[in-house]
Amino acid sequence: MASSPQTTTPPHHVAIVMDGNGRWATKRFLPRVAGHKQGVESLRRCVKACADRGVGVLTVFAFSSENWNRPPEEVSGLMQLMVGALAREVPRLNADGVRLHFVGERAGLSDKMVAGLVSAEQTTAHNSRLILNICFNYGGRWDIARAAAKLAEQGLPMTEMNLDRAMALAHVPDPDLFIRTGGEQRLSNFLLWQSAYAELFFSDKLWPEFDEAALDEAIAAFQGRERRFGQTSAQVSASAA
């Protein structure tokens, strides 16, 4: 439903490309993995802030299918960080009412990693305060191709509605607000299908620097925009009235 430019309602679904961890570390003469560790702290803060502000769904880009091309030591460090974060963060997220979904290709991940993802999803399955989708080994083109293959396998027609229902994020509405940190202004193969009508917000802050005030700035920008979904401003105003 279209909202007026002055709405005080927060975006229901926020998606974030958490960019800039490596650059944050490099600026401090630290190994890139140190930046990713600090990025986990920033994510913890962001999850709490979103829940406190009434956001219903938070989807973050943790590891893309293209990230395998990074230096082997960084990829290995990211995998170890993920395993450690699961063990450390899941009990806290569960206590805070957060439901976890891990979205992405699991083939190629270690058995220990996959078991950790499954366990985290099962442990938090009853929660409803906030849905946290962590896109890990994910790519938007992979998502679309996988959905199309699923329809072909089921013998279903390739309609927009069927594709939408076959996508990896079919369990949540499309993002309302798409945030990218780190000063870059591109989608980088993240939620290509789902972001068709998302409001885009680009922050110059590196992800470890992205705090509650930066989130509030993005939400305020969202609330100041007119979402038309193909309609005219007059139609939106009439609908709101």
UniProtKB/TrEMBL annotation:
An example Gene Ontology biological process: polyprenol biosynthetic process
Gene3D superfamilies reported in the protein's UniProt record: Decaprenyl diphosphate synthase-like
Details of cofactor binding: Binds 2 magnesium ions per subunit.
Subunit: Homodimer.
Protein's name according to its UniProt entry: Isoprenyl transferase
UniProtKB keywords: Magnesium, Metal-binding, Transferase
Keyword Cell inner membrane attributed: no
EC number: 2.5.1.-
Alphabetical list of CDD domains matching this protein: Cis_IPPS
Organism: Variovorax boronicumulans
The keyword Metal-binding is assigned to this record: yes
Residues at which substrate binds: 20-24, 32, 36, 64-66, 68, 70, 180, 186-188
Protein residues bound to Mg(2+): 19, 199
Record GO terms (molecular function): ditrans,polycis-undecaprenyl-diphosphate synthase [(2E,6E)-farnesyl-diphosphate specific] activity; magnesium ion binding
Cofactor(s) listed: Mg(2+)
Function text: Catalyzes the condensation of isopentenyl diphosphate (IPP) with allylic pyrophosphates generating different type of terpenoids.
PANTHER family, per the entry: DEHYDRODOLICHYL DIPHOSPHATE SYNTHASE 2, DEHYDRODOLICHYL DIPHOSPHATE SYNTHASE FAMILY MEMBER
One Pfam match: Prenyltransf
Lineage: Bacteria, Pseudomonadati, Pseudomonadota, Betaproteobacteria, Burkholderiales
GO cellular component, one term: cytosol
